[in-house]
């Protein structure tokens, strides 16, 4: 029993990390209607910015205090978002979702190349931002880093949710997420929305990188997490900030349970397949994901 | 609209793939060129071309499922893999090639139907998730099956094609083998475009709600879209198996699926011509850059090579982006516009 | 001119349809009968439930209760494409064409149910397939001719103007070889002259082909001129049903819908 | 000042020319109506003004569009919007998944006078009494006419200087059509709103307008003041539905042989 | 006379990070050999590097071109994609392929033209396990973490299962946990492994897995030594984690530990390198190239400087024994035949261990690998 609860706790904490990456997906979609397949690469970029302004700067002889490093990282993300808007997505405003989706595929290749070019493919350490070790709560052990990350994910979710649904700016972004042309006709700057989307997306992805990689290694291969988070974002609903962490927890717990109870019976196949089975089952009941916008069909 | 002077006496003439005599001549020249190519090229080019033909087949399939029917599929590479394993397995029983290739197509089609079922309810990008599931499950399932079924970890080796008395072994043989199949599938893909079946797919893509009310059985059509698309993937898979002579799960990755999709979109998802242009464009850019980079490394100019290959990624991604920004509806659309402009010059049309 | 002779029989009828969307009651026990060779108009204020009623007839909405009958048979359980197969064809409010196909392809999709070739024969495109495509291309051309779309037959519908798309929509509906034609606001977006043409089309369809027409329309001049009977719906209920002359003078209808626009 | 188009050409996709040397003027405080058959280029004209051609790969290739003396040719839609030009698109483009209320608020997104926004909302409810009941509904599920009301309301929420309406009466019940033009006329008079109107309900539109243009095949083929238009034979026949006689011909009696007579040019 | 030896590289795939060093190793050894040996024999070995992206499809496409343009006498392969795509056709193409990475059991086939300087990963692990077991004298309880859909990683575990099966009183595989290649957390897995009683942990997959396992152990207060391989070895791991936390962990392989006190190959590299730095992967690639060059030497001796071709190269490999000395101390004495794609007879392994936060070789000789049947 204790074991089961421990598995649930760990599963949810890991799930919240998936959720955090998924939020970075959703933020971009929710503000600009762009499905970004390159989100894993964006996360790697965030991680590399972080490295540059912390350990990298230190190695180069300019040690910066961690908060300053993080602030500079966020600034880096802002620049990153602006550049992407200006050179990649601005010309594609109003184009089919397909074309924009493809642009993200191109970006995937491009960003990978740029990261390799600028930082080289070498693996490097990530700064330790979250405390290591674990918290003993009664009979349970809770990973401190993941716990803080999880709490942060939930707080971020609430904040972003309020931003998108309550603020006037959020309303504008919602209009852009509906349809570029309609938003344009309402005098909403789609460019601005896209820039905001990518800045937010990059910042959230960087936060995710901090939780995910704190005290570990940064390599270009980390980008795989993007493909892990895509289904989570879809399960939560592409338009829904709050769906992402919930979906993440579902997947995380499902995976943990499968690892513990089914993998021994199936020689490891279950934990790979189960999350997808769960996701398809949920989608059959709610085709728009848990909290996504229901597709409106009228005649 | 066709320029002045081209008119059709019959509806058949209008429905032709190559509408004018000149188009026919160009096509004939292209085919002749491809047949003659081995005379003038080294095996590297042949290898690239063979690979390109196979990719083309897979992308035709994607054109049917995604381009025509609008059902997102990011598991095409898994379907190609299913075709490859089917062909490999069947070749082990000594079946002739003209049984194996159609069988690979049909088996792939049948399996794809399984993953198409959610399309009844799940729409748009969410469908990507169910196909993603197919892509993820593909290696896991093959690895979990008993070794002697599909080779598990080891993979399967493929008996070479025997045609009459001839056993195909050299790259040249497989160049012609895939060329013929690619040509057949090209005609098939263009045929779909102008037939009742193709129109029903396009109707479902454009507006599935209306299609249902206007007499098109939408669910069945979506399933058939996956089935038809996977037929092409199955043939591509069989060719892959023959050309590689050995199939393992590791050759059929999600990344390859994404690439297939990329080629289709860069070329233009709304016409079979788009599939051709996309495959040719991306293959050219990819191989060109790669070739140059390899040459530079061998020349010793960049001894360790890391930077150089990073630059090729940048250039490749950049090329695709530029193609998209320049023509978001795909190269096929741009081709169309250019041709129109050329034919109408100097008068813009109203 | 059309003169009703022997007692016309009902072709399509809706019987006490009730339709709810959550708290919204779109239809509260609406009944409607369409007779042979009749142009039957349905009018009513915005949001009254007219389109919902048509959607129930064509099967897109499933009413919570009530029945739809076609030529005497209960078709309430049939899915939309089956109903289309019986010959219930329709046009739509707003734009509902297939935007990335050409005008002629749009019309040809209407013949889907009449054509036979399937996937494998399509891949081959040989002999019978070719002959069939040609035969139907010819029939599509008749419709193109009828709707004066000749110059635009190969134009992508998504690039067309609003009014042209509505014509393509009508062409597709005609291609179903309908036994009854349901039209939702066909006149919207047409100029007076085009409305005249369209009214002529509708009368031709009825007179020439003998198919009844259900017409939802806000243009009272057209409705009063060409319809044989009118049903008025308000807040999901039928408030009147009768000939144009009767409706024109019905107080409830004037209050709810016509207002002073009707001299 | 107002709006003026001089010799504007519009080309789609680099090859399809739709507008040819269009000249059009909308003086401040006036209502101008633009008539024309399907495919004449009316919507294209409006999109050219509000800068929305880009998404359709269209472009103004020649000529100039001036608003209050400023050149807005091929401008950025957001900038043009902020100058006070607000357009109601054809095709019922509501923001489907947002509620009616949110849709209305999006209309006012660029305004900072929050209190006035509230009163404007009330005013719009006055024009369209059906709207208040729909506030919490998802806009995508409204009926056709309800959407149309919402669109016009949304445009008014922006407090435009120049309101551009593309077939506003489409799909509205007769009472509402009548009221709509009255309302627009009233706002125009009371608040000095400038209006450019494309409308197929020519009778109602011409009755309210100050000046009118007729377009065909991408060109302006006729223009004149309200009286001139009302008395013009062709306008009467093609747009008002009279065929020479005083009485309107019944739609039942339109003859088969009557084919479209095309404008010269 | 010039002979081409082609080489696969992975500059744009998962091993892009180690590639510059690996290729530097190959280039440096080739340069040295040309000067020290080739000149005397009148032959020159030319290395041609091709980027294969660690992708089977790229290999399949590029190989015919290499054949025709370069007519290589041998190919230096890198990783599983080269193996699975080329092993079936090499006998026809008559080009032997020399691998620097260890083999995986799935290519353990007789009569091949693919040979590795190393046995399978499982052999290498087995050598280390046997060493540990012998020292302790107790039965060794092994746990493993691996990735399900990576054939090579699964194969490593299968080999170890075979080991336990063959020597049931010496080894036991208590539990295998399947994880992703970049796992978020391995806490659950480690808890399961520790409750299953694992005394040593085999992680032959990725560096990220090793680090995640170390973090999880820290969290759970465990300390089980980890056994890594070369591609995720201690040097790689050290980039992301303080080595002190991994005290007692190993990397197992079968060429000379790069930090071995007396290692002639290292001196050769340092003297001839143009770029790159010495390390595990450099050592591996250098040793790989060295074997190919020694093959060329023996082939020249047999057929003459002008007549060397792929067949002669393979014959040279099979007919000769390559001594540790010839191989500059980088490899134990190697003997090949056509029953297996790796050295036969008494297979040797080597290993490194972390002691006080430093990587040191385990012992200064070679460890014997217990005999294993093909699994
Ligand atoms: N799918 C749906 N979900 C929720 N509400 C709906 C749906 N369809 C229609 N409604 C509501 O039902 C009512 C009737 O809608 P309907 O479209 O039938 O009106 P209508 O009579 O066609 O009006 P109009 O003349 O304006 O087109 C409206 O209030 C509408 O908002
Ligand atoms: N995106 C586009 N690409 C190519 N051609 C277009 C495009 N949009 C419109 N057209 C063409 O431009 C012409 C004018 O279209 P427009 O929409 O301006 O007409 P309209 O006067 O508004 O007609 P309606 O009354 O039917 O709405 C039409 O012939 C149409 O086919
Ligand atoms: C174990 C493998 C996945 C890794 C190794 N470098 C190889 O490919 O041979
Ligand atoms: Mg309606
Ligand atoms: Mg228009």
Automatic annotation (TrEMBL), chain A:
UniProt-recorded name of the protein: Branched-chain amino acid transport system permease protein livH
Give the Pfam families listed for this entry: BPD_transp_2
Q: Name one GO cellular component term.
A: plasma membrane
The entry sums up its family as follows: Belongs to the binding-protein-dependent transport system permease family. LivHM subfamily.
> What Gene Ontology terms describe what this protein does at the molecular function level?
transmembrane transporter activity
Keyword rRNA processing set for record: no
Q: What domain of life?
A: Bacteria
* TM region positions: 12-30, 42-60, 66-84, 96-120, 140-164, 193-211, 243-262, 268-285
Q: Mostly located where? A: membrane
| GO terms of biological process kind | amino acid transport
Q: Please give the InterPro entries that the UniProt record associates with this protein.
A: ABC_transp_permease, BCAA_transport_permease
In the bilayer, the protein is annotated as: Multi-pass membrane protein
| Cellular localization per UniProt | Cell membrane
Q: Which UniProt keywords apply?
A: Amino-acid transport, Cell membrane, Membrane, Transmembrane, Transmembrane helix, Transport
From TrEMBL, chain B:
What are the alphabetically sorted keywords of the record? Cell membrane, Membrane, Transmembrane, Transmembrane helix
Provide the membrane topology annotation: Multi-pass membrane protein
GO MF assignments: branched-chain amino acid transmembrane transporter activity
Predominantly, its location class is: membrane
Which GO CC terms are listed, alphabetically?
plasma membrane
Transmembrane residues, as ranges? 23-40, 46-66, 97-117, 124-145, 174-192, 223-247, 259-285, 306-326
Where in or outside the cell? Answer: Cell membrane
What's the protein name?
High-affinity branched-chain amino acid transport system permease protein
Q: Which organism is it from?
A: Polymorphum gilvum (strain LMG 25793 / CGMCC 1.9160 / SL003B-26A1)
TrEMBL record, chain C:
Keywords, comma-separated and alphabetical: ATP-binding, Nucleotide-binding, Transport
Among PROSITE patterns, the record links this protein to: ABC_TRANSPORTER_2
GO CC terms, sorted: plasma membrane
Q: Which domain of life is it from?
A: Bacteria
Q: Could you tell me which residue ranges the ABC transporter domain spans?
A: 12-260
* Annotated TM spans: none
**What GO molecular function annotations does the UniProt record carry, in alphabetical order?**
ATP binding; ATP hydrolysis activity
Q: Which InterPro entries match?
A: AAA+_ATPase, ABC_AA/LPS_Transport, ABC_transporter-like_ATP-bd, BCA_ABC_TP_C, P-loop_NTPase
Gene3D superfamilies attached to this UniProt entry: P-loop containing nucleotide triphosphate hydrolases (3.40.50.300)
Pfam families noted in UniProt: ABC_tran (PF00005), BCA_ABC_TP_C (PF12399)
Which named protein is this? ABC branched amino acid transporter family, ATPase subunit
**What is the native source organism of this protein?**
Polymorphum gilvum (strain LMG 25793 / CGMCC 1.9160 / SL003B-26A1)
Automatic annotation (TrEMBL), chain D:
Q: Where is the ABC transporter domain positioned along the sequence?
A: 3-242
Q: Which GO terms describe its molecular function?
A: ATP binding; ATP hydrolysis activity; branched-chain amino acid transmembrane transporter activity
UniProt keyword Flavoprotein, yes or no: no
Pfam families attached here?
Answer: ABC_tran
Q: Which InterPro entries match?
A: AAA+_ATPase, ABC_transporter-like_ATP-bd, ABC_transporter-like_CS, BCAA_Transport_ATP-bd_LivF, P-loop_NTPase
* Domain of life (superkingdom): Bacteria
Record Gene3D superfamilies: P-loop containing nucleotide triphosphate hydrolases
Keywords of this protein's UniProt record, alphabetized?
Amino-acid transport, ATP-binding, Nucleotide-binding, Transport
Q: Which PANTHER family does the record match to this protein?
A: ABC TRANSPORTER SUBSTRATE-BINDING PROTEIN, HIGH-AFFINITY BRANCHED-CHAIN AMINO ACID TRANSPORT ATP-BINDING PROTEIN LIVF
Family affiliation: Belongs to the ABC transporter superfamily.
**What protein name applies here?**
ABC-type branched-chain amino acid transport systems, ATPase component
């Amino acid at each position: 029993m204790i074991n089961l609860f421990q598995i649930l706790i760990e599963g949810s904490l890991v799930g919240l990390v998936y959720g955090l990456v998924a939020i970075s997906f959703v933020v971009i979609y929710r503000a600009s209607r762009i499905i970004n397949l390159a989100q894993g690469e964006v996360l790697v970029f965030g991680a590399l910015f972080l490295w540059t302004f912390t350990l990298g700067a230190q190695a180069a002889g300019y040690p910066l205090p961690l908060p300053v490093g993080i602030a500079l990282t966020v600034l880096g993300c802002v620049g990153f978002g602006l550049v992407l808007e200006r050179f990649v997505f601005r010309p594609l405003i109003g184009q089919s979702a397909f074309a924009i989706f493809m642009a993200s595929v191109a970006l995937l290749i491009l960003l990978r190349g740029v990261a390799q070019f600028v930082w080289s493919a070498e693996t490097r350490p990530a700064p330790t931002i979250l405390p290591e070790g674990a918290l003993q709560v009664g009979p349970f052990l809770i990973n401190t880093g993941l716990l803080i990350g999880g709490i942060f994910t939930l707080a971020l979710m609430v904040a972003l949710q309020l931003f998108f649904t309550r603020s006037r700016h959020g309303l504008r972004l919602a209009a852009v997420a509906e349809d570029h042309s309609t938003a344009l006709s309402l005098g909403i700057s789609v460019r601005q929305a896209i820039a905001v989307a990518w800045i937010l997306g990059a910042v959230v992805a960087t936060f995710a990188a901090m939780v995910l990689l704190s005290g570990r290694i940064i390599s270009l291969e980390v980008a795989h997490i993007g493909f892990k988070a895509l289904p989570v974002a879809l399960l939560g609903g592409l338009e829904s900030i709050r769906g992402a962490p919930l979906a993440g927890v579902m997947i995380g717990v499902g995976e943990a349970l499968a690892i513990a109870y089914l993998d021994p019976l199936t020689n490891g196949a279950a934990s790979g397949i189960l999350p997808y089975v769960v996701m398809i089952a949920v989608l059959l009941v709610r085709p728009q994901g848990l909290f996504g916008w229901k597709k409106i069909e009228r005649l | 609209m066709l320029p002045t002077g081209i008119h059709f006496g019959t509806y058949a003439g209008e429905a032709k793939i190559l509408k004018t005599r000149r188009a026919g001549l160009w096509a004939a020249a292209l085919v002749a060129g491809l047949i003659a190519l081995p005379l003038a090229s080294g095996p590297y080019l042949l290898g690239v071309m063979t690979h390109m033909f196979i990719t083309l087949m897979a992308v035709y399939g994607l054109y049917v499922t995604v381009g025509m029917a609008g059902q997102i599929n990011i598991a095409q590479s898994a379907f190609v893999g299913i075709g490859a394993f089917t062909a490999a397995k069947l070749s082990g029983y000594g079946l002739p090639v003209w049984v194996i290739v159609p069988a690979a197509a049909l088996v792939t089609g049948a399996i794809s139907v399984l993953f198409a079922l959610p399309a009844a309810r799940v729409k748009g990008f969410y469908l990507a998730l169910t196909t993603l599931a197919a892509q993820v499950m593909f290696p896991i399932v093959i690895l979990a099956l008993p070794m002697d079924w599909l080779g598990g970890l080891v993979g399967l080796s493929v008996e070479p094609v025997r045609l009459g008395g001839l056993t195909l072994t050299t790259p040249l043989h497989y160049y012609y083998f895939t060329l013929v199949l690619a040509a057949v599938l090209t005609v098939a893909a263009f045929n779909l475009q102008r037939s009742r079946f193709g129109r029903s797919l396009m109707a479902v893509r454009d507006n599935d709600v209306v299609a249902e009310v206007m007499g098109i059985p939408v669910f069945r059509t979506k399933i058939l879209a996956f089935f038809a698309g996977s037929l092409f993937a199955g043939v591509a898979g069989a060719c892959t198996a023959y050309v590689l002579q050995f199939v393992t799960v590791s050759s059929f990755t999600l990344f390859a699926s994404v690439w297939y999709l990329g080629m289709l979109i860069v070329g233009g998802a709304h016409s079979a011509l788009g599939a051709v242009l996309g495959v040719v464009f991306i293959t050219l850019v990819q191989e060109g850059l790669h070739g140059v980079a390899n040459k530079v490394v061998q020349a010793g100019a960049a001894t360790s090579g890391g930077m150089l290959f990073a630059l090729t990624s940048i250039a490749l991604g950049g090329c695709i982006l530029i193609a998209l920004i320049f023509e978001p509806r795909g190269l096929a659309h741009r081709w169309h516009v250019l041709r129109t402009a050329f034919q109408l010059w100097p008068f813009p049309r109203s | 001119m059309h003169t009703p002779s022997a007692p016309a029989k009902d072709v399509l009828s809706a019987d006490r349809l009730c339709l709810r969307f959550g708290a919204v009651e779109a239809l509260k026990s609406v009944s409607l009968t369409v007779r042979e060779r009749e142009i039957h108009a349905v009018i009513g204020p915005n949001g009254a439930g007219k389109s919902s009623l048509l959607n129930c007839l064509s099967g897109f909405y499933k009413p919570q209760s009530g029945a739809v009958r076609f030529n005497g048979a209960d078709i309430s359980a049939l899915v939309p494409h089956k109903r289309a197969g019986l010959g219930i064809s329709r046009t739509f409010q707003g734009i509902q064409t297939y935007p990335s196909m050409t005008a002629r392809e749009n019309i040809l999709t209407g013949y889907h149910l009449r054509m036979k070739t399937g996937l494998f024969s399509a891949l081959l495109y040989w002999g019978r397939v070719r002959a069939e495509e040609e035969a139907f291309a010819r029939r599509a051309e008749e419709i193109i001719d009828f709707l004066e779309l000749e110059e635009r037959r190969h134009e992508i519908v998504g690039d067309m103007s609003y009014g042209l798309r509505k014509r393509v929509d009508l062409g597709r509906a005609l291609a179903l070889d309908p036994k009854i034609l349901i039209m939702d606001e066909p006149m919207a977006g047409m100029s007076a002259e085009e409305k005249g043409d369209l009214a002529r089309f509708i009368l031709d369809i009825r007179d020439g082909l003998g198919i009844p027409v259900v017409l939802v329309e806000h243009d009272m001049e057209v409705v009063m001129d060409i319809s044989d009977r009118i049903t008025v719906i308000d807040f999901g209920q039928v408030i009147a049903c009768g000939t144009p002359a009767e409706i024109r003078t019905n107080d409830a209808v004037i209050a709810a819908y016509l207002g002073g626009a009707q001299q | 000042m107002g709006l003026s188009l001089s010799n504007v050409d519009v080309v789609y996709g680099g090859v399809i020319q739709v507008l040819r040397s269009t000249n059009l003027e909308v003086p401040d405080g006036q209502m101008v109506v633009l008539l024309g058959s399907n495919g004449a280029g009316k919507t294209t004209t409006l999109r050219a003004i509000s800068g929305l051609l880009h998404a359709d790969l269209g472009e103004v290739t020649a000529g100039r569009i001036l608003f209050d003396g400023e050149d807005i040719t091929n401008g950025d839609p957001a900038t043009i919007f902020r100058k006070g030009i607000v357009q109601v698109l054809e095709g019922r483009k509501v923001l489907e998944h947002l509620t009616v209320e949110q849709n209305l608020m999006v209309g006012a997104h660029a305004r900072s006078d929050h209190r006035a926004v509230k009163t404007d909302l009330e005013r719009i409810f006055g024009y369209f009494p059906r709207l208040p009941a729909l506030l919490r509904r998802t806009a995508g599920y409204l009926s056709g006419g309800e959407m149309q009301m919402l669109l016009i309301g949304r445009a008014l929420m922006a407090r435009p200087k120049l309101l551009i309406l593309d077939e506003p009466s489409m799909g509205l019940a007769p009472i509402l059509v009548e009221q709509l033009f009255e309302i627009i006329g009233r706002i125009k008079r009371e608040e000095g709103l400038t209006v450019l109107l494309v409308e197929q309900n020519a009778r109602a539109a011409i009755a309210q307008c100050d000046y009118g243009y007729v377009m065909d095949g991408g060109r302006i083929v006729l223009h004149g003041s309200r009286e001139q238009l009302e008395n013009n034979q062709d306008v009467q026949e093609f747009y008002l539905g009279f065929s020479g006689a005083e009485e309107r011909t019944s739609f039942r009696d339109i003859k088969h042989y009557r084919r479209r007579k095309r404008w010269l040019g | 006379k010039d002979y081409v030896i082609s080489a696969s590289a992975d500059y744009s795939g998962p091993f892009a990070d180690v590639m510059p060093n690996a290729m530097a190793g190959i280039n440096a050894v080739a340069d040295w050999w040309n000067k020290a040996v080739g000149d005397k024999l009148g032959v020159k070995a030319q290395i041609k590097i091709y980027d294969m992206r660690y992708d089977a499809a790229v290999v399949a496409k590029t190989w015919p071109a290499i054949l025709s343009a370069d007519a290589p006498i041998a190919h230096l392969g890198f990783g599983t994609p080269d193996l699975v795509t080329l092993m079936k056709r090499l006998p026809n193409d008559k080009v032997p392929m020399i691998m620097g990475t260890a083999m995986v059991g799935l290519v353990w086939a007789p009569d091949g033209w693919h040979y590795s300087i190393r046995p399978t990963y499982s052999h290498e692990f087995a050598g280390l396990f046997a060493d540990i077991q012998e020292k302790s004298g107790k039965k060794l309880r092994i746990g493993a973490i691996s990735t399900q859909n990576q054939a090579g990683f699964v194969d490593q575990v299968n080999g170890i299962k075979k080991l336990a099966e063959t020597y049931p009183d010496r080894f036991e595989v208590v539990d295998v946990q399947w994880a992703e290649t970049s796992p978020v957390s391995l806490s659950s897995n480690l808890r399961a492994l520790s409750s299953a009683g694992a005394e040593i942990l085999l992680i032959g997959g990725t560096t990220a897995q090793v680090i995640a396992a170390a973090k999880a152990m820290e969290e759970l207060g465990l300390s089980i030594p980890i056994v890594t391989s070369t591609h995720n070895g201690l040097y790689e791991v050290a980039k992301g984690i303080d080595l002190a936390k991994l005290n007692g962990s190993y990397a197992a392989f079968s060429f000379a530990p790069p930090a071995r006190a007396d290692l002639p190959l290292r001196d050769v590299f340092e003297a001839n390198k143009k770029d790159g730095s010495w390390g595990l992967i450099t050592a591996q690639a250098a040793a790989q190239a060295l074997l190919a060059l020694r093959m060329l030497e023996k082939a020249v001796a047999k057929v003459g400087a002008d007549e060397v071709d792929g067949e002669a190269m393979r014959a040279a490999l099979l007919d000769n024994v390559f001594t540790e000395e010839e191989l500059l101390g980088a490899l134990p004495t190697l003997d090949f035949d056509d029953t297996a794609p790796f050295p036969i007879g008494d297979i040797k392994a080597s290993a490194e261990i972390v002691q006080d936060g430093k990587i040191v070789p385990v012992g200064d000789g070679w460890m014997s690998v217990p005999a294993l049947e093909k699994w």
